[in-house]
Amino acid sequence: MSDAAISIQGLGKTYAGGKRALDDVTFDVPRGRIFGLLGPNGAGKSTLINILAGLVNKTSGRASIWGFDIDEHPRNSKASIGIVNQEILFDPFFSPVETLEIQAGLYGVPKRERRSMELLRAVHLEDKAHAYARTLSGGMKRRLMVAKAMVHSPPVLVLDEPTAGVDIELRQQLWAYVRELNAQGVTVVLTTHYLEEAEELCDRIAIINHGKLIANEPTRELVNKAQEKVVAVTVDRDLAAPPENACFERILLKSPRTLEITYSKDRVNAGEVLAAVTRDGLGIVDVTTKEADLEDVFLSLTRAANG
């Protein structure tokens, strides 16, 4: 039995016509974690998820879910994963409770072991249990999709852009449920375009660009990779133009007395930047810094990979 919730080795996918969606991708998703899978549109994330779901055939490599190889043990591997797709997919004429009962039946869950109402309570849809699914709002449909993915109690849950188009309150409810599931031992794989979400939720993040894996590190280590830092300096008099110095990467005059200075922390430190400002005869009244975040790292890594 592998220690990884998901293990991917040399995974490749080339579509008809020669488009290479995945190129020798290798990484493990540790058990019991919330793992971020990020990348620009068209990077290969959905192809990878669809291979794990059994919806797309890989061209090369191996993949296993909860220790079950997807080729050698397809039934066990599929039973070990629940997937919430970007697209909202269910019959609009069934109620939420009927939707969950049918899905549980497809997975062979005996009636006495089904948890349909429990799952609807967990995603705050108990009061809509018997309404037509087509009458649900977009946020409710998203939450129903999460419940649908959990009917067979899989140890791994994959959320593919689950909060796209969901308002802030519903997004927070969804993340509270995801954290609850994770606390119960469910491994969660998350793809999202909301990088602040990934930074807040994920223990570890992998980034795919043009089908290649370009990063796979603990979230904090990844954020610490950002080399550019920004400091806002308020000076003691109005300026017509920002001062120039070789130690600045960029400098902007945000207001007559406020400079926004970008510098590379592998070249200079904040003290040297401030000393350069005072050497121009300016008095410093106030200083604030902007910490690097995941968005800075993401853009830096994908730009470097595109270059």
UniProtKB/TrEMBL annotation:
PROSITE patterns from the UniProt entry: ABC_TRANSPORTER_1 (PS00211), ABC_TRANSPORTER_2 (PS50893)
Keywords of the record, alphabetical order, are: ATP-binding, Nucleotide-binding, Transport
What positions does the domain ABC transporter occupy? 6-235
Entry-linked InterPro entries: AAA+_ATPase, ABC_transporter-like_ATP-bd, ABC_transporter-like_CS, ABC_transporter_ATP-binding, P-loop_NTPase
What is a GO molecular function of this protein? ATP hydrolysis activity
Q: Which Pfam families match?
A: ABC_tran
Task: Name the source's superkingdom.
Answer: Bacteria
Name of the protein: Multidrug ABC transporter ATP-binding protein
**Gene3D superfamilies reported in the protein's UniProt record:** P-loop containing nucleotide triphosphate hydrolases
User: What taxonomic classification does the UniProt entry list for its organism?
Assistant: Bacteria, Pseudomonadati, Pseudomonadota, Alphaproteobacteria, Sphingomonadales
UniProt keyword annotation of Nucleotide-binding present? yes
